[in-house]
Amino acid sequence: MLELADISHRFGAVQALQDASLVVRRGTVHALLGENGAGKTTLMRVVFGLLTPQSGRVQWQGAPLRLASPSDALRAGIGMVHQHFTLVPAMTVAENAALGGRGLFNPADAANHVQQVAAKAGLVLDPHARIDTLPVGAQQRCEIVKALARDVQLLILDEPTAVLAPAEAAELLTWVRRFADVGNAVVLITHKLRDALAVADDVTVLHRGRTVLTARAADTSEAALAAAMIGERAAQTPSPAPHSVAPGSTPGTRIEAAPPMRGHVLALRNVSFSDDRGVQRVREASLAVEAGTIVGLAAVEGAGQHELLRLLAGRLAPTVGHVERPARVGFVPEDRHRDALLLDAPLFENTALRGAGARRGRMPWRALRENTAGLLTRFDVRAPGPDAPARTLSGGNQQKFVLGRELAEQPQALVVENPSRGLDFKATAAVQQALRDARDAGTAVVVYSSDLDEVLLLADRVLVMHAGRLHEVAGDREAIGRVMLGGAH
Asked: Could you name the CATH architecture of 264-484?
């Protein structure tokens, strides 16, 4: 269906792609793997008409293909769902799906079309719902329906399970398999090797912009893929130190022995929160987080966890109740592009965002440049220097930069949302170790992850949020999962 041969592309001094190749067969799921910055998304942006390669050729269904824009790609039958969604929050599902079309916009016709496409694909979606009212799983379904409404035959999914709960991720991968089985094709960009091997027919690995491995999924393994992704270095993810389990507890609830309690530094006292539409997102939540501990939060999407984290971080004010927080609270949101970075600003200006609301007087730009240079070294952020625009960093390096900025002055408390979203296993290990180091230095850490295994790996205590209420769960992975879905504990 699709053939890419000898594709090269350069951004200034950065060689993003170097003679990269990819062949996608009709009726298959093709997993595209690689470290952050390996060139996966760049290669797929070539396929979707967002970038014109400086050399190489693209063939679509046996004929040369030249794309001037995504409109050309959609007309050819190629759609792409980006890792960071491209929806207009104030518009409805139907309005978003109609964007880029031709002729007079008819709301009823647009809604009917979306309903028909969603029903045919087996995707549950309300065409009249506003995007900003939908949980992330529904927004992703909207992005897929947008593409399917243009009759695409090849669908590119960039990290589609990164922010989905386990049940949502499994449902999406089942749909991907069905879509390919009827004669279409899917390119699945993912860092989750288990997902890739579970659903893909073929795999391609990029390393520093080059294609280093192409194989049938059945003929390879997680270890072989990991080795190809990181070149000739060891393919093992650094493991945490051996953990100890408190007497009488079940393995899996307490991952490491917590340091001695030194008094709580972050607390909620009977806190409730209602959003602008009057919907109660957090209900009578009480929580105390001690210095030197990591509290892990598990929840399915829409359970109120995002509002709870912002209450703890001081980004929202409670409707009822009281929040106790120290003077220095770091916050790492899950959407770094929207909520943590000025993408076109240099890194040293992004460093200045830390504590910007409290800063007074003239900006110390020289000191900020020096501090940023030190931050890049300390947290192993791969960037040309403090003057590099944030947009030029790979996703993993952007995440390490945001985390490093929040940790640079050792906050008393740190609130983190989906810390490894979209990161490869090496960057994930680095971010997770930084959270452990912060805990060991005495910071009170609250971390939410849509990946339950990550919560269990990091947490000294596990809390579950369901329908706006907090529950402390003592039990194994299955017990926690039951409470996430509303079961007893």
From this structure: 3-Layer(aba) Sandwich (3.40)
